[in-house]
Amino acid sequence: MARKPQLPSVGILLMILGLFVVIMFGFIVILELPIQLALLVVWFMIMAFGLYLGYGYLEMEKGLLKGIYEGMGAILILIAVGALIGSWIAGGVVPTMIYYGLSIISPGIFLMAAMIICAVTSIATGTSFGSAGTAGIAMMGIGESFGLPMYLVAGAVISGCYVGDKMSPLSDTTVMTATLSKVDLFRHIKSMSFVSVPAFIIAAVAYWITGSIISDGNGDLTIAQNTMAGLEESFNISWVMLVPALVVVVMLIFKLPSVPVILFGALLGSLWAAMFQGYGFIEAIQTLYSGSTQNTGITFIDSLLDRGGITFMLEVILLIILALGVGGLLQTIGAFKVIGDVFAKWATSTGNLTLTTMIASFFGVFFGGAAYVSLLTGTKITEENYDRKNISKTLLSRNVEAGGTVTTPMVPWSDGGVFMATTLGVATLAYIPFFWYGFLVIIITLIYGYFGLFILEKDEYEKEQDAQSKEDIKTSY
User: Fold this and answer.
1) Cβ(387)–Cβ(340) under 8 Å?
2) For residue 461, what pLDDT is reported?
3) Is 253 in a helix, a strand, or coil?
4) Cβ distance 156 to 139 under 8 Å?
5) I need a surface site. Which of 91, 120, 200, 420 has the fewest CB within 10 A?
6) Of 179, 173, 163, which is closest to residue 74 (Cα–Cα)?
7) What is the DSSP string of 95-160?
């Protein structure tokens, strides 16, 4: 007779999480094996504990598949962005961005400008991945031409990209957080603005000061001029090349779905490659799948532009699938429930409530590998604590984004960490110290929590959601 499933004790949960860290460290650092293999081993490790706790294999498999399903949105975006990068490089869109950027941006203000440009792009489009794959790649090329450290440029680029991913009403994570927290979307954005605006300003000033200091010895405009000459020789450079980018931005501003819009922009890139860059029609379409190979004669530009296509994203997609499966398994065996019960006893003030929510959200990133998982863990584990203290859920939604969304590019095996490292060509651990916007968001959020600052009152929408939740609980019994 099968044993009734039971929740893991705190000791067993700590053992599971400890083994997770050991497996990841052992495979990646000591054995130098792919992260994907480490996550696959983690699957079996969690399943072994699940069997010990009385869960059946089919039940755990169902939970694993559910976890993967909940992150399919990110996978679809990755496929679309991979196609976009390949065709926009071949179509001259990204090379033109680099060319014009080199002509108008000076080395001293470049880091600040890179952050602002990527922030505007991500706010307008609602996607950090899409912004990094287009404007971000262009900024990396310009930064390389100025002789700036690539890890520092990547930090500025990612900082800008995550401003929009966290704040834009077009961002899937912003919309998903508001929905899961049961608050109005624009009230959620208003609450986050108290944190994000000062974090953005401080980070921008820090990048400006840093750029001014280091560019004195490294801002060789001769390199930039040679880069511009190489791009002009290899591509047809014109404002017309920017039309696909403008079309995509306008369509996203009008709140059209991001995946079809990005794919449409990718198709425009292929059309531009055939019309303006000398590609044959079949060859141009092929760039959507396999990217394009460039030969500008400038090594670092060739390495920067020799990327893209759906195949460019396949390893990233596999990693995300495996990471999402880990999150699904942990939820199935009750790990999230146990953590929630522990946090409930500790969350006695707005400060502790803020900290526990951020930890619960980061738990989803670290052990689930995706921002989508972090939004689920952050809200599901801690939302009842806000109800008990009768605090507006806008604080919950703000804390979830601070602990989940902006920490995603800080974890090497998360969807954000892998995507940014792969797309920008800089290792996650190398750019993390320079992702200043992310660290500022975390610090400012904690300060607000412990000092009780900028906590909104419940509005009518939120009160209606609370009433509906209570009614749902009554009717379920």
Assistant:
1) no
2) 59
3) helix
4) yes
5) 120
6) 173
7) HHHHHHHHHH--GGGHHHHHHHHHHHHHHHH--HHHHIIIIIHHHHHHHHHTT--HHHHHHHHHHH
| Contact (Cβ atoms closer than 8 angstroms) between residue 171 and residue 130 | no
Per-residue tokens: 96: 């033109």
Query: What confidence score (pLDDT) does residue 103 get?
Result: 75
pLDDT of residue 445: 95
Average pLDDT of the residues in 285-304: 74
Q: Could you read off the pLDDT of 4-20 as tens digits, one per residue?
A: 888 888 889 889 888 88
State whether residue 211 is helix, strand or coil.
helix
Tokens of 354: 């803020």
Residue 11 CB burial class (10 angstroms; 0-12, 13-18, ≥19): exposed
- The residue written with tokens 């300060």 in the block is 447
Residues 237-250 have pLDDT tens digits of 888 888 998 888 78
Instruction: Count the helix, strand and coil residues of the chain and give each as a percent rounded to the nearest 5.
Output: 80, 0, 20
